[in-house]
Amino acid sequence: MSWYRRNRTAGGTYFFTVVSYRRRRLFDSPMARACLRNALRDVRRRWPFEIEAIVLLPDHLHSVWRLPTGDDNYSLRWQKVKEAFTRSYLASGGSEGPASASRRAHHERAVWQRRFWEHTCRDEDDLKRCIDYVHWNPVKHRLVRRVADYPWSSFHRYVSLGEYSLDWGGIDPCPDFQPPE
């Protein structure tokens, strides 16, 4: 079994990229978006964390989470979110992709890629860059021309808090930040 090194900082803030299996366009579906919202809500009740920022693209999502003081177990939380989403999504009529022999041997559903990418936010400037990247991502992928036009993002919450203006994001705010897509 492979060992993946993860940076763990108790009470830390992390940027994540989580991708659907074989880049299936899961989040084009209102039902899939509702299943994810419910999975996040349910997991947060048992294993608390704050969602600082989030964006759902058709085949992946980016999110920034802040964990409670003394807790660094984001892997468990993502495992539980993926499990809850998958159960709900399939029970609601969603379908999984064609499973590889490896997935069949391990009794894994073909809904999510196995792993996720994480980046530990080192300071407030790094956190701002990660949040900006989350919100600007729909423009990067040419899903919209203006950040404000994308509905499946925490951007509008930040506008209501006065963190951004409605016309924010005309140019790439973090051109040097290159997480995996």
Folded structure, characterized:
- This protein is an alpha+beta fold and 181 residues long.
- It has a domain at 13-123: Alpha-Beta Plaits.
- 35% of the residues lie in helices and 14% in strands.
- The chain contains five helices and four strands, in the order βαββααβαα.
- The chain has helices spanning 30-46, 74-91, 101-105, 124-140, 155-160, and strands at 13-19, 50-56, 60-66, 117-120.
- A four-stranded antiparallel β-sheet has the order 2-3-1-4.
- Strand 2 (50-56) and strand 3 form a beta hairpin.
- Helix 1 packs across helix 2 (74-91).
- It starts with 12 loop residues before the first strand and ends in a 21-residue tail after the last helix.
- The model has no long low-confidence stretch (mean pLDDT 91).
Keywords:
181 residues; alpha+beta; Alpha-Beta Plaits; 4-stranded antiparallel sheet; 5 helices
Going across the biggest sheet, name each strand in turn: 2-3-1-4
Rg, rounded, reads 16 Å
Helicity range: 25-40%
**Which architecture of the domain at 13-123 would the CATH scheme give at its second level?**
2-Layer Sandwich
Low-confidence stretches: none
Q: What is the number of helices? A: 5
CATH C-level class of the domain at 13-123: Alpha Beta
